[in-house]
Amino acid sequence: MSVFDDDTICAIATGSARGGIGVVRVSGPETLSISKQILGFDPKPRYAHSCNFLGVDGVVVDSGIAIFFQGPNSFTGEDTLELQGHGGLYILNEILETVLSLNSRLARPGEFTERSFLNGKIDLLQAEAIADLIDAGTKQLARSATRTLQGDFSGRIKTLQDQLTHTRVNVEAAIDFSDEEITIISSTKLTRDLKNTLEDLDRVFEETKQGIILREGQQAVIIGKPNVGKSSLLNTLAGEESAIVTNIPGTTRDVLKVEMLVDGVPIHLSDTAGLRLTSDPVEQEGINRARQTIENADHILLVIDAGSFSGGSEKLALLVNDFVNEFSLTSEHLKNLTVIVNKIDLLTTGSGIDSSIEISGEKTRVISLSAKMKTGIDKLRHHLKSVGQNVIGETGNYSARIRHTEALEEARTHIIEAKTKASDQLHLELVAEDLRLAQKALGIITGELTSDDLLGEIFSNFCVGK
After folding, report:
1. What is the dihedral of CA 189, 190, 196, 200, to 10 degrees?
2. Would residue 352 be called left, alpha or beta, if left means φ above 0 and alpha means ψ between -120 and 50 degrees?
């Protein structure tokens, strides 16, 4: 039974552009009655009828294919009708007006998919994947959205929930039989089970972050001291004059962002204020914003002026080490760092710089180029593409959103709390509560537990008719 027993909706499902074929979709309790009046006969479920479509006055408006899906065996879980006619906007609107006159209303954006979710046909992850599949601009994103739509991501979350359920059942049983001389689950096994669940959750978390990068793009940031050519590099990579370029230090005061696509890999590239000690309050704010951008970046491009050192890779490594120490870059930053030696066009001889150097024990890639002359830019583009593919894989994992990682982080916090308390059998009630909260956080991901506000936000981004 549908949760919408008194409400029938309709919409043009093929958008507003003129085309060879157009589809009007109807869903709800009045669908069969509407079908009889528009088609002039009782449609056979799941059968493609080649027939006429009748208007309000009984005159033929169009002809095409009509398919009636009887609930719950439909996308929405309700009786559904699809009228596939010609794609002229006038004709489609005539058909829509007829449907609207027959005890139905215009669907809200995403309402067909919302009904599918609320009627239990798909979960919230799959609903979001439909939107991602529609918006997919690359092969990787389309494949990842398809995997989520097929239930891959949901399956990973369900496995975590099953693990927590199993552990929680044992903990609850131990609480119930605490007065008996029966060991339902030992502290050692409880700790081990929670440790295994944490490891599985961390793997899902990393894959989810990869899914976010695939969907929203890799966040790359250009950093360095003033006048090393950061803005010139941004302009050259973007293919347009996005940033102001002068020889005056401190020109860039804010974070400037551009979006680019490198062979199907989406990249959000940020130019930042030159990092240096300054008393200028405006420039200080720019530097603070640069630091924040570094913290949120997936990859860091540290630009060094080729004319600021001599002696090849050893001197370069010393210069980079000084920069790392001066601006407190951590080991996590270094894992995602590429050194860009810019302005090699000003050197009278070859740069003599290796393709990698070692910084604080981390092997760091080095790319020598000239942003002004565009020398070596293709090498940097290829590197950015490789970095992106290494993060998301050749085919990606599954499409994901920030709300998913936030829920996973909340679940992880509660599992860690439970693991901390697991060694003491006197605290089993607290362990059980932490496990319940962890399950609740995971339930928010799939939509088992969710708010109307969240649903409104998600489905409002869909197109009408989907």
Report:
1. 150
2. left
DSSP string of 57-108?
A: TS-EEEEEEEEEE-TTSSSSSS-EEEEEEEE-HHHHHHHHHHHHTTT-EEPP
Instruction: Give CA–CA dist 27/111, Å, rounded.
Output: 10
Q: State the Rg of the chain over Cα.
A: 29
Strand order in the sheet with 9-12: 48-54, 60-69, 80-87, 19-27, 9-12, 105-106
pLDDT tens, 215-229? 777 788 888 888 888
pLDDT per residue as tens digits for the range 339-388: 999 988 887 665 567 788 888 888 889 998 998 888 889 898 888 877 76
- The residue with tokens 């798909």 is 122
The residue whose two tokens read 């990393």 is 206
Contacts with 289 (C-beta within 8 Å, 6 or more apart), sequence order: 254, 255, 272, 273
Residue 402's closest CA among 354, 347, 458?
A: 458
Q: How far apart are CA 383 and CA 177, in angstroms?
A: 60
Tell me if 459 sits within 8 A of 113, measured CB to CB.
Answer: yes
Q: Which two tokens stand for residue 256?
A: 């400037």
- The whole-model pTM stands at 0.72
Q: How crowded is the C-beta side of 373, counted as CA atoms within 13 Å?
A: 11
Structure token pair of residue 193: 């089970």
User: Containing H/E element for 52?
Assistant: strand 48-54
296 contacts: CB under 8 Å, gap ≥ 6: 219
C-beta neighbour count of 450 within 10 angstroms: 15
Domains in the chain and their CATH numbers?
9-121 (3.30.1360.120), 135-214+401-447 (1.20.120.430), 217-392 (3.40.50.300)
How confident is the model over 124-138, as pLDDT tens digits? Answer: 999 999 988 888 777
